[in-house]
Amino acid sequence: MASVPENNNYSIIIPTYHERDNISPLIERIADAMAGRDYEIVIVDDNSRDGTYDIVKKLSSSYPVRIIVRENERGLGSAVVHGIKNTQGKRVVVMDADLQHPPEVLPSLVGKIEGGADIAVGSRYVPGGGCEGWSRTRKIISAGAGAIAHIFLPSTRNIKDPMSGFFAFRRDIVDPEKLNPIGYKILLEILMEAKSRNVAEVPFTFVSRSAGESKLNARQQIDYLKHIFDLMKRKGELLRFIRFCLVGASGVGVNIGVFALLTRLGGMNESDFLALAIAIEISIITNFTLNDFFTFRDRRSSGCFLLRLLKFNVICLAGAGIQTGVYALLYHGLGIYDLLSDFIGIIVAMIWNYLLNTWITWH
Ligand code: GDD
Ligand code: MN
Question: 16 in ligand 1 pocket by Cβ < 6 Å?
C-alpha cells in the first residue's frame, strides 16, 4: 500500500465469521465513504469455511484491504483486539461486516476524531439514531444491558450506547495489552481502559441484516454479565459496591442501636415516631461519613462535605420511602410473604441509593 500522511491514517478493523455475501458491498461502500482519506481495511476472520477468505483476497487487488485469519480462536471481542494489535493506523475504526453498521456513517464518525474527540461512538440511543426491525424482546434486552453498565460502571453513564460495536478511537489513548474482553462488548473495554475519555456520540440506525445470520446468543448474554463483573473487579468498582453494602449494613446496626438507646435509656416510648426518625437520621449521617471517607474517597469532587451530606440525606430518605412503598405493594398488595417482601424492598432501595448517590453525591 502507498505510504500515508502522518495525521490521516486509519485502520478499519472488521471481525468476520461467515460473512461471504456481505464482504463485497461492504468494502465498496467503505471505499466510497472514506474517499479522500488514507485508510486500510483489516478483516479479522476466525477461519470461516464459506469462502470469505477468497473474496477478500480478490478484492485486495482493487481496494486497500487485507485479511488476518485466526485458526484456533473464536470470538468477536478477541478478534477485534487481535486486529488492534496487528495494525498501525494512528486511528482505529471498528465495525461489523454484516452491513448493520452503514459505512455511510463513517465520515461523521471519523470527523469527530478529526475534530478532537478521543473516542467516537456510533450510537443507537442519541437523537437521530435507532434500530431497525428489532423485536420487543431484543429492545428490552438491549435497554437492560445498557442499564446494567450504567449502574455498575458509573463512568459509562455519560455515554448513551456503551455497547455499540461501531466506533472509532485514537490509538494512543489505550494500551492494547490491557484489553481483555469477555464476549462481544469491546467498546466497554476501551471506554474503561482509555487514558483520556473525550467521547463523542454520532447517531446511526442499526439496520436489519440482509444476508447471513447473527452469532449473538444466550451465551453472549451471560458473557456480558461476566464481562461487567470482571471490569468492576479490575477497576475497583466491585470493591466500592461491596463497601457501600457493608456501610449500609453498619447503618442498620446504628439504627437499631440508637432506637434501643432512646427507648430503653432515653425514656422515649417505642411507639414514638420521633425515636424512629432520630435513629434513621443518625444512621444516615454515620453511613454518609463512612462512605465519604472509605467508599468514595477518590470521588469527592461534588461540593463541600455538608452539601454532599445533604444530597445523600435526601436520596436515602427517598430510598426509605421506596423501600416502604415496595413492601406495601408486595406484602399488602400482592400478598407475598412478609420477610421476602421486606428483603426485596431493601434490595430495591439499595440499588436506588447506589445509583443516585454515585450519580449525584459522588460523581
Ligand atoms: N472474527 C470473528 N469471530 N467475528 C465474529 C465472531 C467471531 O467469533 N462472531 C461474530 N463475528 C462478527 C460477525 O461476522 C459480524 O461481522 C460482527 O462480528 C457482528 O456479529 P453479529 O453476530 O452480527 O452481531 P450482532 O449484530 O448480533 O451484534 C452487534 O450489535 C450489538 C449491539 O446490539 C455487534 O456490533 C455487537 O458488538 C453489538 O454490541
Ligand atoms: Mn449483526
Answer: yes
pLDDT at 25 over 90: yes
If one residue of 12, 76, 163 were mutated to test the ligand 1 pocket, choosing by the most ligand atoms within 8 A of its CB, it would be 76
Q: Tens digits of per-residue pLDDT, 81-117? A: 999 999 999 999 999 999 999 999 999 999 999 999 9
Residue 38 Cβ contacting ligand 1 at under 6 Å: no
Mean pLDDT along residues 76-80: 94
Q: What is the mean pLDDT of the chain?
A: 92
How far, in Å, are 29, 79, 89 from residue 54 at the CA level? 19, 19, 25
Ligand 1 centre to CA of 210 (Å) is 14
Assigned CATH topology for domain 10-235: Spore Coat Polysaccharide Biosynthesis Protein SpsA; Chain A (3.90.550)
Given 3-state DSSP classes, what are the helix, strand and coil percentages for the chain, each rounded to the nearest 5? Answer: 55, 10, 30
Nearest-CA residue for atom 17 of ligand 1: 96
Q: What is the pLDDT of residues 207-261, one digit of tens each?
A: 998 888 887 788 888 999 999 999 999 999 999 999 999 999 999 999 999 999 9
**How confident is the model over 157-172, as pLDDT tens digits?**
889 999 999 999 999 9
Q: How far apart are CA 76 and CA 18, in angstroms?
A: 12
Mutate to test the pocket of ligand 1, among 12, 13, 17 (most ligand atoms within 8 A of CB): 17
> Is there a contact between 99 and 209 (Cβ–Cβ < 8 Å)?
yes
Which ligand gives the minimal distance to the CA of 209? 2
Is the CB of residue 183 below 6 angstroms from any atom belonging to ligand 1?
A: no
Report whether 171 contacts 92 (CB < 8 A). Answer: yes
Report the nearest-CA residue for atom 37 of ligand 1: 165
Q: Tell me what pLDDT residue 7 has.
A: 43
- Quick one: which ligand is closest to 161's CA? 1
Q: Which three cell numbers stand for residue 56?
A: 477478500
Domain residues of the chain, as ranges? 10-235, 237-361
Residue 43 CA: which ligand is closest?
1
**Is residue 318 within 8 Å of 352, Cβ to Cβ?**
yes
